[in-house]
Amino acid sequence: MKHWKHYAALVLAAGMILTLAACGGHTPNSAEADSGGAGQAAGRTITDSAGRTVEIPETVERVVCVNVGALRYTCYMGAQDLVVGVEDYEQEPTMSRLYNYVNFHRFSSLPVIGTNGEHYPEAIIAAGPDVIVMSSFGDADADALQDKTGIPVVMVPGSDTTLDQKAYDTIRILGEVYGKEDRAEELTAYLDGVKADLETRTAAIPDADKPTVYVGGVSFKGHHGFEGTEAGYGPFALIHANNLADATGQSGAFDIDTEQVLAWDPDVIFLDFNGMALINEDYAKDPDYYQGLTAVREGRVYSQISFRSSASNLETALADAYYAATVLYPQQFADVSIEEKAGEIFTALLGANPYEDLKEAGYAFRPIQLGE
């Protein structure tokens, strides 16, 4: 959008004419200027995750979300109806981001206001949001976008794992922006309950009683095969699993030498559905490698629904944690039905339960047979 400056100048000029025509020649205050000339009275100030003091309207009724995670957490907050424009990748329905899947009927008809990492100031101005919510991923520059659009930009941290402080901070800030403090408290309490439940059931299990576990096919910057794994894998961290990748000295997602996995010979293997096409392709080429793994020979290979698509999808990661726990610690989780628990989590965060749709598409929590 090369002509945004010209467009913004026209918008400003028009606003000045209307202002001068109004009785008394009223001069807009800072809140009115920051809200794109919407003529709203001075509202309130909040402090965002970057420590910026941002002046926003008393009531926020229209928003756009830029950068990965901002729209996702807006949906967790039950504020999807406020959204008046989306980034282009939200214009295609996908089960890899369930917030998109359950809200696609809303998002598909909205104007495109940017793409991942690039914002379209003209389109944002035309959409007329009261506030722009920006996550801190990538080269996020809230001041630059605010200067270009004349619209308040509020930064939130977003999260690329599970229940870290960034997730909680994002919920708190959005609750304040959207006037949904009650929802923020309700969601925080629910997530604290999930964390406490997993901790209570697993923290005291002796390491000697924990099976060794490997996760393959983990998505990061695209799909990966069996070699794609992760140290500090969020669902495993929540249940204190004996994740073999944690012993490598690596952090985050990475490709491992698969001969190391063979040497480890993990007791249990989990595979991310996003990597299954590559894994099955490799299995067809070299079945002997996989048959060298005891977990493959003895049927201890299980699914994980990919939780990382445009950063971490919290509801899927938490469901993954519970499913892994029912496999690794059957005694401690004997009372948990994974279908019921996944449905509870999805409903709590998304207001809907798409688990049956996931199952129909082949993404159920279940044992996996390589080559199927």
Can you walk through the features of this model?
The protein has 372 residues and is an alpha/beta fold. It has two domains: 4-179, Rossmann fold (3-Layer(aba) Sandwich), CATH 3.40.50; 202-360, Rossmann fold (3-Layer(aba) Sandwich), CATH 3.40.50.1980. Helix content is 42%, strand content 14%. The protein is elongated. The chain starts with a helix and ends in a 12-residue tail after the last helix. The model is unreliable at 1-40 (pLDDT under 50).
Structural class: alpha/beta
Helix content: 40-55%
Major sheet size, sense and barrel closure:
4 strands, parallel
The radius of gyration is 23 Å
Distance, first to last CA: 47 Å
CATH superfamily of the largest domain: Nitrogenase molybdenum iron protein domain
Sheet with the most strands: spatial strand order: 11-9-13-14
Low-confidence stretches: 1-40
Q: How many DSSP E strands?
A: 14
Second CATH tier, the architecture of the largest domain:
3-Layer(aba) Sandwich
Shape: elongated
Mean pLDDT: 89
